[in-house]
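Contributing: when you submit paired examples, paste them exactly as shown. First protein:
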Amino acid sequence: MHSKTHEEVLRELGSSYEGLGREEVKNRLKAHGYNTLEEEQESKLRVFVRQFTSPFVVILMLAGLLALAFGELKDAAVVYGILLINGLIGFYQEIKAIASIKALKSLTAPTVKVIREGKQEEVKVEELVPGDIVLLAEGDVVPADIRLIESAGLLVDEALLTGESVPVEKEAQRVLPEDTPLHDRVNCLYKGTHVVRGKALGVVFATGKNTELGKIAQKVLEKSPESPLTKALGSFGKKWIATLIVVLSSLVLYAVFVQGRNPKEVVFFGIAQLVSAVPEGLPIVVTIALVVGAIRLSRQKVLVKYLPAVETLGSATYICSDKTGTITVGRLTVENYIAYNKTKLFYCSALCNDADAQKGDPLEVALLEWLERERVNWQAIRDAYERLWEHPFDTKRRLMAVVVKEGQGYSFYVKGAYESLKKMCINPPQEAERHHDELAEKGLRVLAFGYARLEHIPESVDEVSIELVGLVGFL
């Protein structure tokens, strides 16, 4: 859909700016299904039974069965008792992890605003169908895969899909080549991502398992390969039992045909030796070791759904991973800054900022966290200076500006790309260009901050000349 204009997409989906009719929605819901991610529900019984499916455990169960057949009730009770305890430990650990994972799965909003039959209404996310016209605003979670029709200052956090923590600018009017990769499709929104800033109108083109998030979910449902530990234990068990059978069979045959002993007594002796030679304590020792590893990982906020995965992770030599959201928390932070006027830099960071402590543009949230680390009370600054005028973040100019009342005049604060603010400076510091390049060379995302004292509120930012008060580098 990214390679077509939104008019072509609307025609292809049989929709319009008026949205779909109610009967058409019902028909499409039957054809495409609900907008949910199907998940394989594994029963507790299945999880419990899985604890007894490894080759080594099966061998122990057969050994216990043979012990029962020959009247060795104590040996059978020991073997099956150990297997039961082993299974219960593994079962408890996996059920606890599954319950924790279910509690964390809350990626999509419960309702969404749509236009149907020319009227705006709110519907459940699961009832969205291809062709629905959706309205989104700052803070909304994208409920399906959407081709943009209109957008205004739209920034979207796509870390869930791309691993990139910096919000992506979206433009509805762009038409892209067909082979454009997912992270460059600026005219589309994808299920599970969320709107950081701006507003949007779009048409749904994929729901449920047909979305990009749904395709990832289908991959997750694929059966995982056996872990190295499971393979090793299975191989060891087979080789050990085969060796025992060969050795004990040879001894039985020798005792019966060469030494002339009673066949029944000799066979019973051989089976007893086979049962006693099986290390019934091994599975529970392995399980306890894995549970200890899982508990240690849980203290580091890592949930282990499948116990053998603990050993698999430990046997890895190299792990190739995108850093955002995996080995980092997927959040921006202020790594370094250069102040030409420290007080004004702090004031600009607090006042030219629409975020609060918990939500907002990741860059702006990072600025507030930085101010707190610097022991600056940003809330008190906001309470003391009333915002009278603002120029919302402009994706074209790449800046945001506000005017606040200060004394008998007004203070103008602006933040944005260094290249944009440099054009507004009267006499930028001579070392500013070098400082900017040094921060950028360290891999930091750099924002510039400016200030001006005004006699009146401006009509636009083009009227204002500023002084550069600082540079801030984000990681």
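Second protein:
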Amino acid sequence: MPQEKILICDDEQGILTYLKKLLQSQGYQVETFLGGRELLRRVEEGETGDADLLLQDVRMPDMDGISVLKKVKRLRAELPVVIMTAFGTIDAAVETIKLGAYDYVTKPFPKEKILSVIKNALEKEQLIQENRALKKELGKPILQESIIFRSSVFRETFELTLQVAASEANILVLGESGTGKELIAGAIHYNSPRKERRFLSINCAALTETLLESQLFGHVRGAFTGAISTQKGLLEEADGGTLFMDEIGDMSLPIQAKLLRVIQERDFIPVGATRPKSANIRFVAATNKNLEREVAEGRFREDLYYRLNVINIPLPPLRDRKDDIEPLALHFLKKYSVRMKKEVTGVTPEALALLIGYDWPGNIRELENVMERAIILARNEQLTPKELPIWRKQPEVPAKRDVELVSLENIEREHIERTLANTGYHKSRSAEILGISRKTLDRKIAEYSLHIPA
């Protein structure tokens, strides 16, 4: 039975008695008031949350019902109000809806009608409160417990992340694939003043240039073949929030130029449009490439690099975070044990030693993959080396053997011949791999009498 408290205000004692008896029979707590001033005194002296709904007449002798509603909403904006009105005062009741009342009922009303309106009003308010609580929970800063680590080397990285999060500066996150760059980007957003707004991400390497442009900037109807409707881009959707751009080093130069304008001018033009739209966005970019080298070789704009690299956060690879392997492994063990409904509680010392001794070229992503596979294969409560595929990957020390001594000329010939074969005898591609010009490659082919299939 419900235990919500309902306040009823009406100048007719008979209505108050009837409604109190009806609502109490449904399990509600009820307080009644014969006038507006008495009601307002109760609301002023009470505390937020000590009433769940107000049932109020629109006409009262001591105060106008609309004035009462205005003061109630000023004192308790969140309190849902249902207005009771006679047939001749429907216009006034409609006015109360504009002022924030949930609904109105016309006297005389059947009990089913009033009970239904009250039930719906209370359910709506409960949904609003749950939504507000969820937003508050989602908006909580990402704390140390949310990012798994034990090592001092990653502690420095995490502390730097929290330190720079409060600023408005664009940030460049650097690190190998699988080191957790998006997680760090999320920590930056949710510990920043923008945490109430959206955090969106895009992988620049996963999309073609045309699709990436459309996803970022949006497009208007008819901008290109297949654009049957106008679509907002991520820049518009992320306005006021944070946009995480993963693999920024794979973005083409034309898109880089457009992104630079967004950062500098804080506006953009959707594909096919003519008018710019404003964009108040914080950019967090990430890459596993050496952007300084990309700039030097002309594949990345220098001006964009400096705009993004106001602050950079380098993420250490997992092989340099050996102390973090055990807590990360146990975290993934718990995650996939619950998901797969298996009773796996730990890792044997031998299996743990194997995990710690491995170099993890795929970093945390590889560790998660290994632990998921191990949980699938596990038959006991403890994971053993048998369930871990990494023992097959341990590097073997090559046996000593006699080395055939050959000339530098023979090595060069074999290397060129092997490169040509691997590229399907594509000369331009082979020359690029070898680091020589096409003209030099043609000369080497002739010099070594290499056979090129027709």
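If you have annotations for the second protein, write them as plain sentences, like these:
Residues 47 and 154 are 47 Å apart (CA to CA).
The chain has 18 helices and 14 strands.
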